[in-house]
Amino acid sequence: MTMTFIFYGVAAIGLVLSLVKSKEKTKLALKKAWKAFENILPQFLAIVLLIGVILSLLSAQQISQLIGKDSGWLGVLIAAVIGSITLIPGLLAFPLAAALLENGAGYMQIGAFISTLMMVGIVTMPMEFLYFGKKATIMRNGMGFVFSILVAIVMGALL
Amino acid sequence: MMKKKTMKQVKRYRFFVVMLGIALGMLLFNHDLGVKVFTLSTDSVLGMLGVLPPIFILIGLLDVWVKKETMVKYMGKDSGIIGILLGFFLGSVAAGPLYGAFPVAGVFLNKGSRLANVLIIVGAWSTMKIPQILFEWASMGLKFTLIRFVMDIFGVLIIAYSMEKLLTPKDQQEIYALAKKMN
Asked: If you average pLDDT over residues A48-75, what whole number do you get?
């Protein structure tokens, strides 16, 4: 919530400063802002629905069953895959992860889940394709996945 | 000409139409589940409205006011450590989900930023957002947060530089062309 205020505040200050300097350029900036948004609007709408479909099918209990302490490497892999396909905002993901830990999930599995959740976005790939193309997108997500497994291993060793 | 334009629009919304079909199908065959889909979707739209409009306004302002030469100087090929630090800074003060980073990446590329620096923004945006780190600390404890944060600094750098190395000049030209198209 605070972040929202800060962001709107910064944007508002920027707009006012811009207006003071040049009305024409400010108009152009807003036009460009709208165009940049309109460019991703179709993917944006589709992904919102996709998130709804996925989250409605997967419950927190189902997740914790799959990635318990004794789930081992398979659990790490499952956690990494779940993190890659789901799109839970950090503000929801950390309480969920903490709850999962309390309910018997392992640190390694949770480390893999949190890390892929942030670095890998299968669902948002169509959007990433638009800016980075297929090759770079697949590369970035693939490397993020491998790196997340590494994070999980370190977490497992240190925690 | 008109028809071609309409076809292009239809093609752009193809994925959305498919998803809408699936969601409506779920509503039809399992009412409760379908309602849940639409409730969750509305929630995420509202959540995104909290951050996306100011991000796009700032993209527009940056596009209009920041000169290409300035961007090249601070984020371009020869920007060195300043470009790297700026990349980390910009990514970590960001808010909102990762896909908010892609249009930002687009405008930076378009203004002549070095690819690795833009990938650092994307990487930091994905894992090192400051408000998110504070929240992670509160819910997961200091040790968990610290391990991830320190590893991510290296991870973000390694991914950014190895991608720049692995992508051929032709790949990179295509990325800059895409960024131009999207702006």
From this structure: 80
C-alpha–C-alpha distance, residues B124 and A137, integer Å: 16
Is B120 within 8 Å of B160 (Cβ atoms)? yes
Tell me how crowded residue B53 is: count the other CB atoms within 10 A of its CB: 16
Phi first, then psi: what are they for B51, rounded to 5°? -125, -30
Assess: ipTM above 0.85: no
Residue spans per domain, chain B: 1-49, 53-182
DSSP state of B76: S
Q: What is the pLDDT of residues A116-133, one digit of tens each?
A: 999 999 989 999 999 999
Q: Give how far A158 is from chain B: nearest CA, Å.
A: 9
C-beta atoms of B57 and A127 within 8 A: no
Q: What are residue A88's phi and psi, to 5 degrees?
A: -105, 125
CA distance A4 to chain B (A): 5
Radius of gyration of chain A measured on its C-alpha atoms: 20
Helix (H) or strand (E) holding A13: helix A2-21
Query: How large is the average pLDDT for residues A71-92?
Result: 85
C-beta atoms of B15 and A43 within 8 A: yes
The answer to whether A35 and B182 have CB atoms below 8 angstroms apart is: no
CB A64 within 8 A of CB B35: no
* Cα–Cα dist B81/B75, whole Å: 9
Dist. CA A11–CA B97, nearest whole Å? 18
- Does residue A105 sit in helix, strand or coil? strand
CB of A47 less than 8 A from some CB of B: yes
What the block records as the tokens of A119 is 């670095």
Q: How far is the C-alpha of A94 from the C-alpha of B99, rounded, in Å?
A: 19
3-state helix, strand, coil in chain A (%, to 5): 85, 0, 10
